[in-house]
Amino acid sequence: MNKLFLVGAILFSVPSLAQQSYGLKVGGQTTGITKVEMGDNQNQYGFYIGGFYTIPLKDDFSFQPELMYSFQSFNNVNISFIEYIKQGESINPTEPRFDFKYKTHLIKLPLLLKYQPNKVYVEAGPELAYLLSVHGKYSDKLNEFPSENGKLDDIKHFQAAIAVGGGYKLNDKLEAGLRLSWGLTKFSEYSYIKNFNVGIGISYNLK
């Protein structure tokens, strides 16, 4: 985690450049599972808040690192006992089925190349993240097994994704944007879960 914050500190301390800018970002988002190997995906909602630093390059391009806190939640539901234990598909409708619900807290570091020839812009780049904690809730639809609810420890803290997005400059201070991030890493070595995330929000330019 210290390495992630060190990278963020270096990027945000880049020497002054012409027309450099920085500001705040906030928005809402929805998160799901990229490939559901067991059960069904059920998107849930969250939010993000943080800051950005824009470094102008050439020909309407700029480099924009960001540092964000992100709350994300999603559900993996209707998983059968056989699917979970044997990692295979089950078609038995009477078999006990389970729901897994996840709430995650992350620090994210998107490193974006931004192209903005006019009021409309597009952006793309890698997104690094440190998974602060994951809260999981497990429940049996037929109430044959006890429910469990608590913090998950067996997780991979460092996450990576590819982010693409675009938006519109409303005025000299405000921009509205939409972004999709596609997860490249799993929660743990034993999990198939990778996430996709769609966020919409606004940016406020402080300088």
- Poorly predicted ranges: 12-17
Total helical segments: 2
Beta-strand percent range: over 45%
Succession of helices and strands: HEEEHEEEEEE
Can you summarize the main beta sheet? 8 strands, antiparallel, barrel
CATH class: Mainly Beta
| Reported CATH architecture | Beta Barrel
Q: Into which percent range does the helicity of residues fall?
A: under 10%
Give the number of DSSP strands.
Answer: 9
Category by helix and strand content: mainly beta
Structural key phrases:
Porin; 9 strands; 62% strand; 207 residues; 2 helices; 8% helix; single chain; eight-stranded antiparallel β-barrel; elongated; mainly beta
Structure description:
The chain is mainly β. The protein has one domain (2-13, 22-205): Beta Barrel (Porin). 8% of the residues lie in helices and 62% in strands. The protein has two helices and nine strands. The protein has helices at 2-12, 81-86; strands spanning 21-33, 40-56, 61-80, 97-115, 120-140, 148-152, 158-169, 174-183, 195-205. It has an eight-stranded antiparallel beta barrel with strand order 1-2-3-4-5-7-8-9. It is elongated and about 60 Å long.
Strand and helix layout:
Blueprint: H1 2-12, E1 21-33, E2 40-56, E3 61-80, H2 81-86, E4 97-115, E5 120-140, E6 148-152, E7 158-169, E8 174-183, E9 195-205
Antiparallel strand pairs: 1-2, 1-9, 2-3, 3-4, 4-5, 5-6, 5-7, 7-8, 8-9
